[in-house]
Specification:
The complex is a heterotetramer of chains A (349), B (648), C (140) and D (343).
Chain A: E1 2-6, H1 10-16, E2 21-28, E3 33-38, H2 59-62, E4 66-74, E5 80-84, E6 92-97, H3 99-112, H4 119-126, E7 128-133, E8 160-164, E9 168-173, H5 176-183, H6 194-210, H7 221-227, H8 233-238, H9 246-250, E10 257-266, E11 269-277, H10 298-317, H11 327-331, H12 338-347
Parallel strand pairs in A: 2-6, 6-7, 7-8
Antiparallel strand pairs in A: 1-9, 2-3, 4-5, 4-11, 8-9, 10-11
Helix pairs in contact in A: 7-10
Chain B: E1 4-9, H1 13-16, H2 21-29, E2 34-40, H3 46-58, E3 63-68, H4 71-84, E4 92-96, H5 108-126, E5 135-138, E6 142-146, H6 150-161, E7 165-169, E8 184-185, E9 190-191, H7 192-205, E10 209-212, E11 215-223, E12 226-233, H8 248-252, E13 256-258, E14 267-269, E15 271-272, E16 284-285, H9 300-304, E17 317-323, E18 325-328, E19 332-334, E20 351-353, H10 354-361, E21 382-389, H11 405-419, E22 424-429, H12 439-448, E23 453-456, E24 459-465, E25 468-475, E26 480-486, E27 488-493, E28 495-497, H13 501-508, E29 535-537, H14 547-565, E30 569-572, E31 577-579, H15 589-593, E32 599-602, E33 605-608, H16 618-622, E34 628-630, H17 635-646
Parallel strand pairs in B: 1-2, 1-3, 3-4, 6-7, 6-18, 7-10, 18-29, 20-27, 21-22, 21-27, 22-23
Antiparallel strand pairs in B: 5-30, 8-9, 11-12, 12-17, 13-14, 15-16, 19-28, 24-25, 25-26, 31-34, 32-33
Chain C: E1 9-14, H1 18-27, E2 36-41, H2 49-57, E3 62-67, H3 78-95, E4 103-107, H4 113-127
Parallel strand pairs in C: 1-2, 1-3, 3-4
Helix pairs in contact in C: 1-4
The chains are: A alpha/beta (349), B alpha/beta (648), C alpha/beta (140), D alpha/beta (343).
């Protein structure tokens, strides 16, 4: 359903959401960074539409960096006492999710469903409602969503898309979850008029004009990459890579993880099995206990990251594993720029 | 998982009195990996040890923890027991629950809890111990003695007489050191040369002693039991075998140089024999003073030499020797003249140092034993002896006491009186230190029988005035200012380590104390050993000493050396550092910190010399890469011990 | 009434001086609180900062490093390196806000049983008011 | 003032003469105004080289890569690597020499003097231009920067936008260099540790709250470690398995691997990681500030590492990165080292 909500009444809506944990981008003045944090319901301007990309996407809550799978301990000499720990089903709602980050969640959904449903992921995911905020102006100078099937007004993965129309929001509910959220405070929503709809269209066109970074002929890329597996291209491109984990940890679509047992005490045995993010840029990601490492150098790791996002994932899911949020581009300590890399790939002979 | 056996000792009530040993045993029996846990009244007793041995055999345990008294007491006992039971002794560790637990606590419950933690953490350690074998090295059963003074001679003889080959290195042309210069020795006044020369001859004749005079140690490498030494043999230009001691060469030599043996009171030729009884009995041509080796330049001595013993083409030669131990006995020199200018030393001919005076008193000396003034060969009627010239003077000179001066000054004064019956001897002193057998009596004799006048106080000024040497001082006992018109002044100069010893010490890697004497490993318990294994100290090189002390220490050092030389192989604790080459980046920080130079960099990687390593582990803590660890006390072991000590 | 807080202390004692010193305390039947579990290492120079950090992480309320007096090190100079390293660790831990009392270093010779006893007593008394150390304690 | 053309000319000459394998320098990036590392192999490519206030990186980090690469090669090219290094960067090279990680003949240093300014702080610039897109930043004639945005240039005093570390610079002129560019000017630095004062004035509890909040942010991307030229250990305390493992590594050796730090990004684990790193940098950190710059969650790591740099200076009178011959801070001692903290 489509609605209109004035900015004044927006806080009332939020106030009504008592049964939810409400997250929104909050600016930390100390390091002037935006982060998703639970917000103060009484703050009138909870949602600042000009906010820049958050350091981490909602991934940090839907797919937390640390997830306890189970707790174990020795019960007696013979047996062990093992207790699964599922995340509690608290309802949560994210306001102001950027369309790129929402699309990223949609991509993760694909990964965590399929043949095997990741119960830990879905417990959180199902209880999460994503309220997007269309980008009237790109939140980063390196945004390139248009190149990867996205748009500043994309709805994919969202339950509601808000469009900032100055004094009011155009509210587009896309799912049941979205409708539920609106129904919590029906009365404050109005029906949209034609001028609202056209205003939305205009805003979208204006915004898309402002996105000035792009990957050319992206359709060609997957095949091109396939041919380039053994190319020395990767050695060249990775020269400046310092094998840190910023690009992947900040990426809203990267979802690799490691599972380890954290032993707290040996006698009596006590510990937890946890899932933590892992990272294909770390040398120990593929390290075998034999000492063999199939991806021994930076080149093979940069290649892995690029191919995973722009070849393997496409082959499997028919999507790029990238939504153009540009965090990796802006935050890379040495300015490795996936846009530039892929444009080079296109011209690589 | 490895099977650990835990054995808790009651030690009568010493432990059981405060620690509930049953509870400890019981708790530990439930501890992961513990296959056997028992307590017993006296574990160290034979039945106790048998418990351990049987348990090991029955339950075939892999390793053992004994919770009892301090490891310093029974570690060996229990490790041997384990050995008997057929497991490597290094797989047995002691948990100290007596000295560090039962004896220092009252509250039984808490003491028990602590005993459990201590035992637990020892279990965590022992189960990660690796079986080790003592490191064994073959011993080169020869010794090197550096310095041919009385100390060096004594050590060399003792070692040789114990049946070991000895290389005795002396840098001057003859052995004998300072002792050979002395006239008579306190307190018995027997003639120094008479008692020393037989020993010198014995050295020269001894089949096991290789004497290398006019030689200097250039380089030392290796480690205890296996040192490699490079010795430079300086050319004497005289072949001792050919030389007949006819002395024709000196007659024709045109050059006169100060005679070291007479401390410069007389001269010698450029070609010379240090003194008649010199060993080896041969001449030396000292090129510093020789006009030139080319016959054109001079060549008189060669012409004069009937047997043609003189060979100008003799070249310095580098000799390499392998030895198992090294004794350093480089002796002393007297404090530099120049520095003692305040007492007119070096300024006035009749101000002498102790050694010069010894030469005046010596029958073999320049005056044939008569005390005569160097300046005018007159008999001095008033002689002032000044003790502590340079000693016990932290502000200007040496802080330490040179120890022997009180005695030899008394001797000097006494002998002077015997020489010049109508003369008067004055002695300025701070204190008289005459500890030693018959020493005090000797000093008293000087005062009472020979009327030596002792003045307690320091000399303020020494200057020449109409043919006399005026000595101003204060007698602090009377508080009076004293003025003496002396004919001769004798300074009891401070003893210093012999010149060049610092370089030698560096070559040997022996530490020196603040005064430049060699440091012993422990001031009380290891007085003749250096900190470097296999290196020993003898004589005044370590600190001022008189002859009996030097001889005693020399024999002590020899005996210590024998403890090494008498072995076929040396055994060394295997709990040493080990390098994980893959982790090492070759930064060399471990090399910097190792106190034993056991670590070196080889092709950019650290390498441990297991014989030199004492296993202190400082390298391991310094290494940023965790590339070094000490065997059986690895970071992993400590980490697990920490967990077991605080956890729970 | 609630039981008084009993701090847990890990003491890294060098084998030759401090461990011997604590043995002497035992031999002389001196008494001190049982809060300290000694871990004997060869030399204070072998105590890596990691040992100290992980002791705190594993739940120690206080950590003591004790070695031979300067000049007395059985390994000649290990304790001098320890002195430097530990000084830095101490400064760092205080800087990040760990109570200074929680980490201490001492020189205890084989003859100083009394001193060891005193050090442990004082240490325990200083730690009691601080309560348990939670700042660096493992919270996984 | 450093003349870029001279730099290019010399770089070209050295490459022409084949005296270096390649030159590590700075070039324009594609993702914004900041420079990015350049690896110049062909003489003609020297045209890519730039020198302006955006040349923030400590390129010394790439000498570590080079050493590893060389170790892997069968017949490695033995020629040195050229590197463009500011004063601070050369201090890092000195430490690597001191630790014998590289040999002097392995590196050809193009030293660059920062003269009276230094390099910029991205955030400070961003604040200056109020979100406008920065196109260019250049050195001005007198201790000023010229910032060009889409709407024209502004001229700011360097002091206002300098990287924090530059305000406490200890070497504005290269400590070592085979060729050096720019004037040698007195640094006039009076309070090298000024920035620490505020932190040190806080109470212990306040400091704890500060660091707890900071380290709780850590996502363990290890960018701080990865960017650090001193963090060249084969294996880091936080790594989960032995890198040093080879075919002949025994199971026992593998079992020796200690889990000092869990992977979970929680307070205790994050603290151990950062504290161990700080300890390992004591007497080695030359305050290039890279760890702080790259941190995506903005943990002020300089405050941590600088503290020990200060202690090293005050307790042991130890200056980092000036003398390749002297032993490292913790592998030496003085008899008179302070021990007032020891009982």
């Amino acid at each position: 359903m489509e609605k209109i909500l004035t900015k004044q009444s927006f806080p009332q809506w939020v106030k009504k959401l008592k049964s939810y944990n409400v997250y929104a981008p909050v600016k930390n003045d100390k390091d002037n960074h935006w982060n998703y944090e639970t917000i103060d319901m009484n703050d009138p301007n909870v949602l600042d539409s000009n906010y820049l990309n958050t350091v981490l996407s909602p991934k940090k809550i839907i797919f937390p960096q640390r997830e306890v799978f189970l707790e174990f301990g020795s019960q007696n000499e013979e047996g062990y006492d093992i207790k699964a720990t599922l995340p509690d089903e608290e309802l949560s709602v994210f306001f102001g999710v950027r369309p790129c980050d929402a699309r990223a969640v949609a991509l993760m959904d694909k990964v965590f469903s399929g043949d095997f449903e990741d119960v830990y992921y879905w417990k959180r995911r199902k209880s999460t409602t994503l309220v997007g905020l269309a980008c009237n102006t790109p939140p980063s100078q390196n945004c390139f969503c248009l190149s990867v099937e996205g748009s500043p007004f994309s709805k994919e993965g969202l339950d509601i898309l808000l469009v900032d129309l100055g004094d009011r929001y155009f509210v587009d509910s896309l799912t049941e979850k979205g409708d539920q959220l609106i129904n919590v405070a029906k009365e404050i929503f109005k029906e949209p008029g034609e001028k609202d709809k056209s205003a939305v269209k205009k805003a979208q066109l204006d915004s898309e004009k402002e996105i000035n970074r792009q990957i050319k002929d992206i359709k060609e890329i997957p095949l091109k990459l396939k041919e380039m597996f053994d190319s020395s291209f990767w050695d060249e491109e990775s020269l400046s890579c310092i094998r840190c984990g910023i690009c992947t940890y900040l990426c809203p679509t990267c979802h690799c993880f490691d599972i380890s047992d954290e032993v707290i005490a040996t006698s009596p045995l006590k510990g937890k099995r946890v899932r933590t993010w892992d990272n294909c840029q770390f040398p120990d990601f593929t390290m075998h206990s034999s000492g063999h490492n199939p991806r021994p150098d930076k080149a093979s790791r940069l290649r892995q990251r690029t191919l995973h996002k722009f070849q393997y994932f496409v082959e499997k899911y028919n999507h790029f594993m990238c939504t153009g949020c540009s965090r990796c581009v802006s935050k890379c300590p040495v300015g490795i720029d996936i846009i530039d890399v892929l444009n080079k790939v296109n011209h690589y002979e | 998982m490895k099977k650990t056996g835990v054995f808790i000792c009651h030690c009568g009530i010493n432990i059981a009195g405060t620690v509930d040993v049953k509870k400890v045993a019981e708790t530990l029996s439930k501890y992961p990996g513990v296959a056997h846990s028992e307590e017993y009244i006296y574990m160290c007793s034979d039945p106790g040890q048998n418990h351990i041995i049987e348990a090991i055999k029955e339950k075939n345990l892999d390793n053992v923890v004994v919770s009892c008294c301090s490891p310093s007491l029974h570690e060996t006992t229990f490790r041997n027991a384990c050995k008997l039971a057929g497991i490597n002794p290094f797989l047995c560790e002691i948990a100290n629950i007596r000295e560090q637990c039962s004896w220092v606590h009252k509250d039984m419950e808490k003491a028990t809890e602590k005993a459990i933690k201590i035992t637990r953490s020892t279990v965590e350690r022992v189960r990660r111990n690796e079986p080790l074998e003592p490191i064994s090295v073959p011993v080169t059963r020869r010794a090197l003695v550096i310095g041919g003074g009385i100390a060096g001679i004594q050590s060399a003889l003792d070692l040789a007489n114990s049946g070991f080959e000895v290389i005795l290195v002396e840098r001057s042309p003859s052995i004998g050191g300072h002792m050979i210069q002395l006239s008579e020795t306190f307190p018995t006044l027997d003639c120094s040369q008479c008692i020393l020369t037989p020993k010198m001859v014995e050295v020269s004749k001894h089949p096991k002693i290789k004497l290398m005079t006019y030689s200097e140690v250039q380089e030392v490498s290796g480690y205890v039991g296996n040192f490699k030494v490079k010795i430079l043999k300086k050319p004497t230009f005289v072949d001792p075998d050919k030389c007949t001691l006819c002395d024709e060469c000196t007659k024709v030599c045109p050059v006169v140089a100060p005679n070291e043996f007479d401390v410069g009171l007389t001269g010698r030729r450029a070609i010379y024999i240090p003194f008649p009884q010199a060993i080896p009995a041969s001449y030396t041509l000292d090129i510093k003073n020789c006009p030139g080796l080319l016959p054109i330049a001079c060549g008189k001595c060669a012409d004069a030499c009937e047997p043609g013993a003189i060979d100008y083409d003799m070249k310095p030669e580098m000799v390499e020797e392998e030895v198992g131990t090294i004794i350093t006995a480089t002796g002393y020199d007297l404090y530099d003249k120049e520095i003692m200018a305040e007492y007119g030393f070096g300024k006035y001919a009749d101000v002498l140092d102790g050694l010069q005076f010894e030469r005046l008193l010596s029958a073999s000396g320049p005056t044939g034993g008569k005390v005569l003034r160097p300046s005018d060969h007159k008999e001095p009627k008033e002689v002032v002896f000044i003790q502590c010239s340079g000693s016990r003077d932290p502000e200007l000179h040496c802080a330490y006491c040179s120890k022997i001066c009180c005695m030899y000054t008394a001797k000097h004064a006494m002998l002077y009186k015997h020489n010049v019956h109508d003369g008067q001897a004055y002695v300025f002193y701070i204190d008289i230190r005459s500890g030693g057998k018959d020493y005090e009596e000797f000093v008293q004799r000087a005062v009472e029988e020979d009327g030596v006048l002792y003045l307690r106080g320091k000399v303020s000024k020494v200057f020449e005035e109409n043919g006399k040497i005026k000595v101003w001082g204060v007698d602090t006992l009377t508080g009076k200012h004293v003025e003496i018109d002396a004919d001769m002044v004798v300074l009891a100069m401070a003893m210093r380590p012999s010149k060049g010893m610092d370089e030698l010490a560096k070559k040997l890697k022996i530490a020196m104390d603040k005064d430049g004497f060699l440091s012993e490993a422990h001031p009380k318990l290891r007085p003749v050993e250096s900190v470097t294994a296999g290196m020993f100290l003898a004589g005044a090189a370590q600190a001022p000493k008189d002859i009996p002390e030097a001889v005693a220490q020399a024999s002590g050092a020899a005996a210590k050396a024998v403890t090494i030389l008498s072995q076929e192989r040396l055994f060394h604790s295997p709990a040493v550092a080990a390098v994980s080459v893959n982790l090492c980046t070759g930064c060399g920080m471990c090399v910097d910190v190792c106190p034993y130079e056991a670590l070196t960099l080889k092709d950019g990687k650290a390498e441990v010399n297991e014989v030199l390593c004492e296993g202190c582990g400082t390298c391991a803590a310094t290494c940023l890469r965790a590339a070094i660890q000490t065997r059986n006390l690895t970071p992993l072991q400590v980490h697990e011990m920490i967990k077991a000590s605080v956890g729970g | 009434m609630a039981e008084e807080f009993e701090p847990k202390i890990v003491a890294f004692l060098c084998k030759w001086c401090s461990s011997a010193g604590s043995d002497l305390a035992g031999v002389s039947r001196m008494k001190y609180p049982p809060n300290v579990v000694p871990i004997t290492v060869m030399c204070s120079g072998s105590v890596s900062p990691l040992y100290i950090l992980s002791a705190f992480k594993e739940g120690a309320d206080g950590v003591l490093v004790s070695g031979c007096h300067p000049g007395d090190c059985h390994y000649i100079k290990g304790n001098y390196y320890a002195r430097r390293r530990i000084a830095l660790v101490k400064k760092l831990l205080e800087y990040i806000g760990l109570e200074p009392q929680r980490f201490q270093m001492s020189w205890v010779s084989a003859a100083e049983g009394k001193k060891y006893t005193q050090i442990i007593e004082d240490f325990v008394n200083q730690l009691k008011p601080l309560g348990s150390q939670t700042k660096l304690r493992r919270n996984v | 003032m450093v003349n870029l053309e001279d730099l290019k000319m010399e770089a070209k000459r050295i490459l022409d003469e084949g005296r270096v394998k390649y030159i590590i320098g700075y070039q324009r990036g594609t993702n914004g105004v900041m420079s990015v590392p350049a690896f110049i192999k062909k003489p003609e490519d020297v045209e890519k080289l730039i020198w302006d206030p955006t040349c923030i990186y400590n390129l010394t980090r790439f000498l570590v890569d080079e050493k590893r690469r060389k170790a892997r090669q069968k017949e490695p090219d033995q020629r040195p690597v050229g590197i463009i290094a500011k004063g601070c960067d050369t201090r890092a090279i000195v430490v690597l020499l001191q630790e014998e990680f590289i040999k002097r003949e392995d590196v050809f240093v193009f030293g660059i003097s920062c003269e009276n300014t230094g390099v910029l702080d991205e955030k400070k610039i961003a604040e200056k231009v109020q979100g406008k897109k920065v196109k260019k930043v250049e050195f001005g004639e007198n201790k000023n920067f010229i910032i060009t945005t889409e709407n024209g240039s502004i001229d700011v005093s360097a002091k206002e936008v300098l990287a924090e570390r530059c305000l406490e610079c200890k070497a504005n002129y290269p400590v070592i260099g085979d060729i050096s560019f720019g004037e040698k000017v007195a640094s006039g630095l009076t309070q090298p540790f000024l920035s620490l004062e505020k932190m040190e004035s806080l109470s212990g509890e306040e400091r704890w709250r500060f660091w707890e909040q900071q380290f709780n942010k850590c996502i363990r991307c290890y960018a701080c470690r990865s960017v650090c030229p001193m963090c060249y250990c084969e294996e880091c305390v936080v790594d989960t398995i032995n890198f040093a493992v080879t075919a002949d590594t025994s199971a026992e050796e593998k079992a020796q691997k200690i889990k000092w730090v869990e992977k979970s990004p929680v307070t205790s684990e994050n603290f151990i990681y950062h504290l161990v790193r700080a300890m390992h940098l004591a007497g080695r950190c030359i305050d290039c500030g890279e760890c702080e710059r790259v941190c995506p969650v903005e943990i002020p790591l300089r405050f941590l590492n600088k503290k020990l740099e200060k202690e090293a200076k005050e307790l042991f009178d130890y200056d980092v990165g000036f003398d390749p011959e002297k032993p490292s801070l913790v592998s030496c001692f003085k008899d008179e080292d302070p021990e007032d903290f020891i009982r």
